Amino acid sequence: MQTTNNTKQINMLSEIVTPLLRWYHSQARILPWRENPQPYYVWISEIMLQQTRVEAVKPYFDRFITALPTVQALAEVPEGDLLKLWEGLGYYNRARNLQKAAQQVMQEHTGNLPASYDALLALPGIGRYTAGAIASIAYHIGVPAVDGNVLRVITRLIASREDIMKEKTRKMIEAYLQEIMPTDKAGDFNQALMELGAMVCLPKGAAKCPLCPLKQLCLSHAEDYTTEIPVKTPKKARRPENLTMFRLQYQDKIAFQQRPNKGLLANMWELPHIDGHLSIEEIKNHIANLGLPIQSIQALPPAKHIFTHIEWHMIGYAITLRALPAHSPWHWISHSDRVESFAIPTAFKAYVFEE
To answer: What CATH class does 239-351 carry?
Structure first.
């Protein structure tokens, strides 16, 4: 029975190839990594596009490629410079894994990303989706690249109520797509599915079905199931953490400290802070106990930053000092040095003003 059902799904999906490619070739967005789909560009763009919108990625991609135009340049760049280039994209371990993978490529593949799905999969930070994207787009290898957009498109087309958060569902979709993959246009086909999910087959009831080139083939559209599919297990609630941020300033310098080399935001530069929400009187006492000469103190608006599993609920204080302390646990960094050399996570940007 399962085999019969799989055959039915594959036969149905085989009908999407021609209209989907026709739509893609006429409607695809012009993107820098598509205009020149060399393996390095595809790789960098795919890592950047995880959790980030295409339009937001463009300037980061251009800046990154200008600074680090080759695998060798990425392998050799100092980590601080790499993190500064990545600043604003978040998920800094992705940048670190890029460098680890680049170093492995230099050692094992003479500086060229391997033209093999399995070899790509063996590199740090590259999972099945990214390996499939690089292999198909840059090397024209007939393998699927299944991300969230593709899962949504395919499950809606076949009206599947399998949970897309489960690995077995992803593998099922990969198997279906492998069967219908146009081997001479594998990269275009994968990108077409991604593009359809990003531009037309949108999540949370926002699907633009009248514009879809596959609407006549879509079972969810026919049965009005697009708001119910895909089925997705809700994520666990994030753990809230309350923090009080200090913007300690003397003249043009602000106090920063470096986070531990492991864990959340490893090695990144941050503002001094303390657990909990402190009142202004508690802050005055805290700063006085540190022996810092306060000139003025001002409460700042609250802010929130969301990580994958944690939410920071922050309040802050701008504290101007009369003098720079002779000894302190912080680095006092000027605005110009910060802009040029220090990667400051977005989580702290609400309290790091631009001069």
So the answer is: alpha beta
How far apart are the C-alpha atoms of 240 and 247, rounded to whole Å? 22
Catalytic residue among 46, 87, 174, 195: 46
Q: What does the DSSP 8-state code read for residue 238?
A: P
First-to-last C-alpha distance (Å) of the chain: 67
Q: Is the pLDDT of residue 324 over 90?
A: no
Q: Is there a catalytic annotation at residue 179?
A: no
**pLDDT of 38:** 95
Buried b / exposed e over 251-274, threshold 16 CB at 10 Å, is eebbbbeeeeeeebbebbbbbbbe
Asked if 148 and 124 count as a contact pair (C-beta separation under 8 A), the reply is: no
In CATH, which of 1.20.1260.110, 1.10.10.350, 1.10.340.30, 1.10.3720.10 is domain 2-223? 1.10.340.30
Q: Residue ranges per domain, the chain?
A: 2-223, 239-351
Closest by alpha carbon to 182, among 8, 7, 13, 3?
13
Residue 2 has pLDDT above 60, yes or no: no
Cα–Cα dist 32/43, whole Å? 13
d(CA 316, CA 298): 9
